[in-house]
Amino acid sequence: MVRVALMGLGTVGGGVAELLAQHQEDIARRAGEGIEVAAALVRDPAKARALNGATPRLTTDPEEILGDKSISIVVEAMGGEEPALSLLKKALRRGKHVVTANKEVVSAHGQELFEAAMIHRCHLLFEGSVGGGIPIIAPLKHCLAANEIDEVSAVINGTTNFILTEMTVRGQDFAEVLGEAQARGYAEADPSADVDGLDAARKLAILASIAFNTRVTPAQVSTAGIRSVRAADTRYATELGRVIKLVATARRENGAVRVVVAPVMLPKDHPLAAVNGPDNAVLVRGQPVGRVVFSGPGAGRGATASAVVGDIMEIVRLRNRPDKSQCTCFTSRPVVAGDGRPAPFYARVRLPDGHGALERLTAAFAARSVALASVTRKSADTSGYEFVLVTRPADEGAVRAAIADGAADIGGSVALNVFRMEDGEMGTSR
Asked: Distance of CA 165 to CAs 59, 204, 235, 271, 410, Å?
């Protein structure tokens, strides 16, 4: 019997305990050995917990777990950077195998954790840190390892995907849908990590590090969130045959890795466009495999617990092998923020009048060699006129500079939103 300890017994930890208890016979057959949750580290042992058949011993003292030689696997389900990072390092130093779903720790401190795992000959697995129940870490490390990966593009934050889906379907504005997401448990009371793109950047850093075998950290990712998206943008996107998604992209370019998280207008036939609600999807393009898409529930008790228990079972099967977890970041590529490819751009602007101001703005685009595919007036009121401009493929810097030039000429801010418009094919812009 393999004894496991949980550090944290909340949504993820509780789901792991329940899954191991409810399916212990099947899991034992598939793993080759029985698995028992021996203990769980909690803040308050007296707190009521409905764990559906799981009855681990509760403790508030990490040493009761770290010092117990009969416990061979530690599952970190606490979340946050500390004390999770310190406890993970201590567990590895004590020779215990580790499973974690903590993207904040893995994305920022994966290198030192893997070094500790190798020194102490332990397994370190983290499938649940990206994509919830979607298997993506193991496929990148093993099933797709023979491929040269060109690009990884993903919708990997369920909160923002739910918000953008509801805005599109129901025509509601950001603040209204955010409140609903919080009421339904999809968004935290402080939603900053999700809606500002930070969560997606952490997950992208992990995926990029594995896909391109080089160290990528969240700080290197160009990151923009969805706070500025308005109902008008989702409505106009629909009119253009598109949807807005928060897309995380890592791409190989001239020996470097480009990384960006930003709202993007995708055509409705794009593989990521049909991923709705809190679901996630990861699209991988490589050689010779071509294009592969992984999709499913990106978060939640059951989805993440499924990934964590899968990692536990893998360790049980492999824990006596001499070759333990190894870091796959064996190259050192430059990391560049932003997408960098020419693309068409959508710009929603407000002008003080519909004639002279528009002429000055379009002249500013021409001066920056940015061709316009269409200019459409959308509304007019006492405060001015709203237009949607769609450019032909251009450099993003030139597009934004043209808008700034036009605003200076007109004498005020004109841009309401600017979004890249991707093509239906992975890795290209129309």
From this structure: 42, 21, 12, 15, 35
Cα–Cα distance for residue pair 174/177, rounded to 1 Å = 5
pTM as predicted: 0.93
Going along the chain from its start, the domains and CATH numbers come out as 2-133+303-318 (3.40.50.720), 137-297+333-337 (3.30.360.10), 345-421 (3.30.70.260)
pLDDT for 428:
45
Task: Judge whether 203 counts as a catalytic residue.
Answer: yes
Q: Which amino acid is at 242?
A: R
CB of 204 closer than 8 Å to CB of 250 = yes
Catalytic residue among 89, 96, 103, 203: 203
265-312 pLDDT per residue, tens: 999 999 999 999 999 999 999 999 999 999 998 878 888 999 999 999
Q: What is the DSSP string of 309-378?
A: HHHHHHHHHHTTSS--------B---EEES--S-B-EEEEEEESSSSHHHHHHHHHHHHTT--EEEEEEE
Distance (Å, rounded) from C-alpha 268 to C-alpha 334?
A: 33
Tens digits of residue pLDDT in 49-60:
878 777 889 999
Q: pLDDT > 90: what percent of the chain?
A: 84
Handedness of CA 395, 376, 171, 134 (dihedral sign): negative
Tokens representing 115 are: 């070094």
- Is there a contact between 251 and 207 (Cβ–Cβ < 8 Å)? no
Q: Is 276 exposed, middle or buried (0-12, 13-18, 19+ CB in 10 A)?
A: middle
